[in-house]
């Protein structure tokens, strides 16, 4: 499995829905490719953090706006 193929299935892997036919190749690629392993770990951690957010909490809209502003400062806002 190459980097593009690994990235294509990372969402499924993070949700434990990875097709068994891809599992060995994905695991091998994660062991051999530090950039993909780091990207996958970041994706996994982000998904876990988002699952723990309560969208009904009173501070949710303000926290969401704060996170978006932080993201835009860090990565720049793409303009069309």
Structure described in brief:
By secondary structure, the chain is mostly helical. It contains 4 helices and no strands.
Mind explaining what this structure looks like?
- The chain is mainly α.
- It has helices at residues 3-14, 20-32, 34-51, 60-75.
- α2 packs across α3 (34-51).
- The termini are far apart.
Order of helices and strands: HHHH
| Uncertain parts | none
Number of strands: 0
Average pLDDT, to the nearest integer?
87
**Alpha carbon gap, first and last residue:** 34 Å
Distinctive features:
80 residues; mainly alpha; 74% helix
Write the layout of secondary structure elements.
Elements: H1 3-14, H2 20-32, H3 34-51, H4 60-75
Helix pairs in contact: 1-2, 1-3, 2-3
């Amino acid at each position: 499995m190459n980097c593009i193929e690994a990235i294509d299935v990372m969402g499924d892997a993070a949700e434990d829905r990875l097709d068994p036919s891809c599992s060995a190749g994905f695991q091998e690629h994660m062991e051999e490719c530090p950039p993909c392993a780091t990207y996958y770990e970041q994706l996994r951690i982000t998904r876990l953090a988002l699952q723990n957010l309560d969208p009904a909490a009173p501070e949710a809209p303000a926290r969401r706006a704060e996170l978006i502003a932080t993201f835009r400062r860090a990565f720049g806002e793409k303009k069309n």
